[in-house]
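Team,

Forwarding the record for the chain on the shared tracking sheet. I've put the sequence and predicted structure together so nobody has to dig through attachments.
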Amino acid sequence: MTNTYWAVYKSLERELIRLSEHIHIDDTQLGVYSLKILELLLRCAVEIESISKELYKNLGGISPIDRDLFFDTDCLALLESKWELSQKVVIASYINFHFEKDENKILKPLHNAHIRGKADWKKAYQAVKHDRANSLQKANLKHLIRAMAALFVLNVY
């Protein structure tokens, strides 16, 4: 079996790197938003949904009979109970990332991600997915980088 999730992650990472060639990514630029960032955020979050469901099933998680399987409150909750994902740290580091604040370079992207409405990148994803016209500003670098960090952690598992 091949890990297609890693290949997609690396593709998303390359696109973020390309963005860093056009945007000086530092603490003051995290609010920068665009349609390209929106596209990357959506793609990244879809991968998070998919990989979390696959990991859930691999750990013996059972799909609810009376409703759909939710990637956060079902899947990420089980993964949290097994692996303490909330405590996993990712360092956002690249030659074109110029963060000075620790909060922007030392990330816990899955902290409270298993609780609906808690993780900032997850709220942004839901907002742009369901109300793009009024939520475009949420498709920003901050949320993209945090979602990418979450996808990275899940790929490690």
